[in-house]
Design goal:
The structure holds three protein chains of three kinds.
Chain A: E1 2-4, H1 5-8, E2 14-21, H2 25-33, E3 41-44, H3 53-56, E4 62-63, H4 70-74, E5 89-90, H5 95-98, H6 113-126, H7 135-141, E6 154-161, H8 168-177, E7 182-186, E8 189-195, E9 202-208, E10 214-224, H9 228-236, E11 261-269, E12 283-285, E13 291-298, H10 300-306, E14 311-319, H11 324-336, H12 344-353, H13 355-368, E15 376-385, E16 394-401, E17 407-412, H14 417-437, E18 441-444, H15 446-449, E19 492-494, H16 509-533
Parallel strand pairs in A: 1-7, 2-3, 2-10, 3-7, 4-17, 10-19
Antiparallel strand pairs in A: 5-6, 6-13, 8-9, 9-10, 11-15, 11-18, 12-13, 13-14, 14-15, 16-17
Chain B: H1 3-34, H2 40-67
Helix pairs in contact in B: 1-2
Chain C: H1 26-33, H2 58-65, H3 69-81, H4 88-96, H5 104-121, E1 124-127, E2 130-133, H6 134-146
Antiparallel strand pairs in C: 1-2
Classes of the chains: A alpha/beta, B mainly alpha, C mainly alpha.
């Protein structure tokens, strides 16, 4: 059932086996796993079913490091969380992302890619991906000719896309509403955590609406599922004069804040009016309406050999505005979607002005059956660069307070020299490869070519926040253990990207879901043990 | 509206009307042989062709969408 | 700026492999012209060269590239960071093995062959951010040193 705390009013404490705080990708995935398990679950969400600005304003914080708009506009605070504007791109973290990499301090997960493999397979259904196929099969079905990239440097990267939009809140709302033993509580903000005397277990939490309605929730286990920034803020808020924050004996909560660095690293131009490259690196759809994207990634050999972070790139094509072909293709694409293109009048006129070019394209299309490609003005090479874990890049609490009286966050996002070096090497590798393959000529972004310090860092955030409650087997090195349980706490867990020790280049949602599925399996066992042990 | 848009709309409208006329007029001539319309035939022809053009405006996207699933390149900028 | 003929769709890149004619397109010139946006302060002053020292017949250059001003600019950029190559003799030797081609076809063949070798050896230069093969960059440098500004 789905309830509104504001209407529920105050009352007796809510008792359940499992309390999930945050209804985003992690929280909703966890909740669904317990449907039919016989265990009672409360899923607590700060917002409602739709966006509202008052609740969203609770996310506002201070930015003292690199510009990070992910603090207040990158994350969404209502049912479904940040999946409400998720682009849907799915790929697992690479095996090397989990390894200790000697050239990247603080790298290494306490689990391996193999440990997550079965959960990635299950995550496919959660993310709407359908049955798995190999990359080779997909490329063959899409009729993509894999280019001869230098294998010691670069690889073709294939992403699958969830059907767009894939908001977990919209997709799973009715299932959660109808689930027995599951109680979704909206407009409920976590404001207080009560522990036992040793501060080794949570005894209860208090949730409050903006209007002041309060309820106590008592559960056997609690899971924070609020995202990297909010998970850190909630834990840090448990500190008082007598004791450090929960899980923070080593001052690690909030540290190692990471996001992917994204931006243009190079521009490709080509003399070919029908650029082949568009038929290789692009978005593609198959007859079953499944969406894929191809791009380039740094090979593990290059990362090891050159001591680099992981990185990937996609191509963002700018059509030749003088070309009627681009306009004709735009009109055709919109018709395939069942509608006329906006500004159809202007498009038609531009097609007529370039009728010979359009006719030539049609002739070519009919004779070769080649994929229709757009005459290029330029191909912008947009890269996602992994961030090196940096303890000085961190989330702390500011002295300002929100409408609930809770301290807001202060985000100090920092980069290291390794991100710039990775971006430069990656851009040069791509440019050289494309030149050698005859796809065209690249201009590397000036800020990558000029000495550091003389040019502004040309990459910005992607809203892939992670790392603030990192996973480590050794409590001196992390906030949660390999089961995502907070070190030193019996019944407090963390789900989501805040547990990532490193982030690869992969969009985090797919891994968030896989980890949530793994945590769900662990919690089912743990809760049954708790139940047997309880009087 | 820009001049380019005006010109483009004129061409598009002309094409739709021409296609409509090509499809409708033979049938309309047959009809007029059976039911003489007198002076009203011009109005009837105009109305029929206009209605046909409007029907084509809605039908063309529907038909293309129904017939053309594709492996084609879709394009588009990276999403967050 | 005069625009050279648009390249046939089957031709790619800055220079064509030895099998076909070399005809830079509008795009290549636009690429080169991107260098116009860079400040000219700081370019090395190159001494004028006597006509008898001209490395490449100007007519051949114009036939292949049309407007040579963008090449000259690229060459100046290259020489700013590779002063060692500011020697027409050295460049002639590196590009043409000492025997300067006299016709456009000969030069195209020579440059194209060098391009293929450079790409195989991954000998790439960064000139104003643009990736050129070493031979392409040296050709631009030679034009900068010896061809009169157009």
């Amino acid at each position: 059932m789905i309830e509104d705390l504001r209407q529920l009013g105050g009352g007796a404490p809510i008792a359940c086996d499992l309390c999930l705080i945050g209804a985003g990708a992690a929280g909703i995935t966890l909740a669904r796993e317990f449907i039919g398990s016989g265990l009672t679950v409360s899923l607590v969400e700060s917002g409602g079913l739709d966006f509202d600005s008052q609740t969203q304003a609770l996310y506002a914080g201070k930015n003292v490091g690199l510009p990070e708009h992910g603090v207040d506009i990158g994350r969404l605070r209502f049912f479904g969380g940040t999946t409400n504007h998720w682009g849907g791109r799915c790929t697992p973290l690479a095996p090397l992302d989990f390894a200790v990499r000697s050239w990247i301090p603080h790298s290494g997960w306490p689990i391996s890619r193999d440990d997550l493999e079965s959960f990635y397979r299950r995550a496919r259904d959660v993310c709407g991906l359908g049955a798995p196929y190999s990359d080779a099969d997909i490329l063959s079905a899409l009729d993509i000719q894999e280019p001869a990239l230098p294998p010691n440097l670069l690889r073709l990267k294939l992403w699958e896309h969830a059907p767009y939009p894939w908001s977990f809140g919209a997709i799973y709302r009715e299932q959660l509403r109808n689930a027995a033993d599951l109680r979704v509580l909206l407009y409920a903000n976590l404001t207080e955590i009560a522990t036992n005397a040793e501060r080794s277990a949570i005894s209860a939490i208090s949730v409050r609406s903006l209007e002041g309605t309060t309820r106590i929730i008592r559960a056997r286990c609690y899971v924070l599922c609020c995202g990297a920034i909010e998970n850190a803020r909630l834990l840090l808020s448990t500190a008082d004069e007598r004791a450090p924050a929960l899980g923070n004996r080593r001052d690690l909560v909030g540290r190692f804040y990471m996001d992917h660095f994204r931006g243009r690293v190079a521009t490709l131009v080509t003399a070919d009016p029908q650029p082949e490259i568009e038929a290789v690196f692009n978005y593609f759809g198959d007859p079953a309406q499944r969406l894929y994207q191809t791009g380039i990634e740094l090979s593990p050999e290059a990362q090891r050999g050159q001591s680099l972070l992981n990185a990937c790139a996609v191509f963002d094509y700018e059509g030749d505005p003088e070309s009627g072909i681009a306009e004709a293709q735009a009109i055709w694409r919109e018709l395939q979607d069942g509608k006329w293109a906006p500004d159809i009048g202007e498009k038609v006129w531009r097609v007529l002005r370039d009728l010979d070019g359009v006719a030539a394209m049609v002739r070519r299309r009919l004779s070769d059956d080649r994929h229709p490609v757009m005459p290029l003005k330029a191909g912008l090479i947009v890269s996602d660069i992994e961030q090196a874990p940096n303890p000085e890049s961190r989330v702390t609490l500011s002295n300002t307070r929100d409408a609930l009286g809770q301290r807001r966050v202060c985000v100090d996002w920092r980069a290291t020299a390794l991100e710039r070096r990775t971006a430069k090497h990656f851009a040069l590798s791509i440019g050289s490869a494309l030149l050698r393959l005859g796809f065209g000529r690249c201009r590397i972004e000036p800020w990558l070519v000029e000495p550091p310090g003389e040019a502004e860092f040309g990459l910005s955030e992607t809203y892939h926040q992670s790392g603030t409650t990192r996973m480590a087997a050794d409590p001196r090195l992390g906030v949660v253990d390999a089961d995502c349980r907070v070190h030193g706490m019996e019944n407090l867990y963390v789900a989501g990207s805040s547990v990532f020790p490193t982030g690869g280049h992969a969009n985090p949602t797919f891994t968030i879901v896989a980890l949530a599925l793994r945590l769900a399996d662990h919690l089912k066992v743990t809760l049954r043990q708790f139940a047997r042990a309880a009087p | 509206m820009t001049l380019d848009a005006l010109l483009g709309w004129s061409v598009l409208l002309s094409l739709l009307l021409a296609a409509s006329a090509a499809m409708i007029m033979p049938a309309l001539w047959q009809f007029e042989r059976v039911v003489p319309l007198g002076r009203a035939r011009w109005f009837a022809r105009g109305a029929a062709i206009a209605a046909g053009a409007l029907a084509l405006w809605y039908a063309i996207p529907l038909v293309v969408h129904t017939l053309y699933h594709t492996n084609a390149v879709i394009g588009g900028a990276p999403r967050p | 700026m005069s625009g050279p003929a648009r390249r046939d769709a089957d031709q790619r890149g800055f220079a064509q492999p030895a099998t076909g004619p070399l005809q830079p397109s509008r795009r290549d010139v636009v690429q080169a012209l991107a260098c116009w946006s860079l400040p000219v302060i700081g370019f090395p002053r190159v001494p004028p060269v006597a006509a008898s020292d001209a490395a490449i017949p100007p007519a051949a250059l114009v036939e292949i590239f049309g407007d040579t001003a963008p090449l000259r600019l690229l060459g100046l950029l290259y020489l700013r960071d590779h002063a060692r190559d500011a020697d027409p003799q050295r460049l002639r030797h590196a590009l043409f093995n000492g025997s300067t081609p006299q016709t456009a076809a000969q030069m195209a063949q020579s440059v194209a062959a060098r391009r293929v070798r450079d790409l195989a050896a991954e000998d790439i230069a960064i000139v104003g951010g643009w990736l050129l093969t070493r031979g392409e960059a040296q050709l631009c440098a030679l034009v900068a040193l010896t061809a009169a500004p157009t």
